[in-house]
Design goal:
- This is diacetyl reductase [(S)-acetoin forming].
- It catalyses: (S)-acetoin + NAD(+) = diacetyl + NADH + H(+).
- It holds the Pfam family adh_short.
- The chain has 2 domains: about 5-185 and about 225-250, NAD(P)-binding Rossmann-like Domain (Rossmann fold, 3-Layer(aba) Sandwich); about 190-220, no CATH class.
- Helices cover about 50% and strands about 15% of the residues.
- It contains 8 helices and 7 strands; from the N terminus they run βαβαβαβαβαβαααβ.
- The protein has helices spanning about 15-25, 35-50, 65-80, 100-130, 150-170, 190-200, 205-215, 225-235, and strands at about 5-10, 30-35, 55-60, 85, 135-140, 175-185, 245-250.
- The protein has a 7-stranded parallel beta sheet with strand order 3-2-1-4-5-6-7, sandwiched between helices.
- Helix 1 (about 15-25) packs across helix 8.
- The protein is globular, with a radius of gyration of 17 Å.
- Bound molecules: 1,4-dihydronicotinamide adenine dinucleotide and butane-2,3-dione (BUO).
- Butane-2,3-dione binds near residues 141, 142, 147, 185 and 191.
Length: about 260
């Protein structure tokens, strides 16, 4: 059995898939956790085919009780619990007048509550096992600077940076760290959908929609999911032991702080 276990939500595709595969390569046994358990199973199988250890778990991160049970199941099946990556999220395109109470509740529940339940469940498990665990949450460049057309999404990502800072303060005395990663514009199904919606709303095509986000990337290219996974691997590993409460921006130089 691998010595360390990582629990990655939204692990079935996009950034979460790249994180799952990277952490497995770095020696973690990985729980690939997603609503879409079939796709999560394919990612887990690909990890195993490469000599790694992985299981797939079905979870809706907005369900607090189910989240807690999933953490117990993973610790039981993989024999430890060391790192949680709260990566799952929704990214709806929402010009101001399109936000309804129902959409607000849905996105807040998945992005913000789904991250908070992950922090709670992981903290409980770290305490039970006496672990100096690592909590790693998905923010976004859109959670550092408000992005046009993304009022609801940006709000959830600002909230995630805030709750990460509080977790870092609350858990530091126990040696548990909490950090966030803020990807820029990453080639995943979420970002392709946002580019499509923004283009469509402006009467333009997907490429135009993407260009509204990508024009300020200093490094001159969109991000691959693996660029983000590399930063998460650093946060999951021992080289980041003295870092807590931070948001690491992985955006190819869209913003400078
Ligand atoms: N793609 C991008 O450019 C950026 C993405 N991010 C963030 O990175 C994270 C991953 O994004 P992508 O890979 O692009 O997204 P994606 O939409 O391609 O994949 C998200 C995954 O999360 C799963 N998921 C959605 N709701 C869930 C729920 N309630 N419970 C469990 N799993 C659920 C989906 O099934 C899917 O497998 C998200 O938090 C996103 O907000 C942040 C900045 C930029
Ligand atoms: C989807 C996202 O997080 C963006 C555009 O930053």
């Amino acid at each position: 059995m691998a010595e360390k276990v990582a629990f990655v939500t939204g692990g079935a595709q996009g950034i979460g898939e790249a994180i799952s595969k990277r952490l497995a390569k770095d020696g973690f046994a990985v729980a690939v956790v997603d609503l879409n358990v079939d796709k999560a199973g394919e990612v887990a199988q690909a990890i195993k085919d490469n000599g790694g250890e992985a299981i797939a778990i079905k979870l809706d991160v907005s369900d607090r009780e189910a989240f807690s049970a999933a953490v117990d199941e993973v610790a039981e099946k993989l024999g430890s619990f060391d790192v949680i990556v709260n990566n799952a999220g929704l990214g709806p395109t929402t010009p101001i007048d399109t936000i309804t109470p129902e959409l607000f509740d849905k996105v807040m529940h998945i992005n913000v509550a789904g991250t908070m339940w992950g922090v709670q469940a992981a903290t409980r498990k770290f305490r039970e096992l006496g672990k100096k665990g690592k909590i790693i949450n998905a923010a976004s460049q859109a959670g550092v600077v408000g992005n046009p057309n993304l009022m609801l999404y940006s709000s959830t990502k600002f909230a995630i940076r805030g709750l990460t800072q509080v977790a870092a303060r609350d858990l530091a005395a126990e040696g548990i760290t909490a950090n966030a990663y803020a990807p820029g514009i990453v080639k995943t199904p979420m970002m392709l959908d946002i580019a499509h919606q923004v283009g469509k709303n402006a009467g333009k095509d997907d490429e135009w929609g993407m260009s509204t986000f990508s024009k300020d990337i200093a490094l001159g290219r969109l991000s691959e999911p693996e660029d983000v996974a590399a930063a998460v691997a650093f946060l999951a590993g021992p080289d980041s032991n003295y870092i807590t409460g931070q948001t690491i921006i992985v955006d190819g130089g869209m913003q400078f702080h």
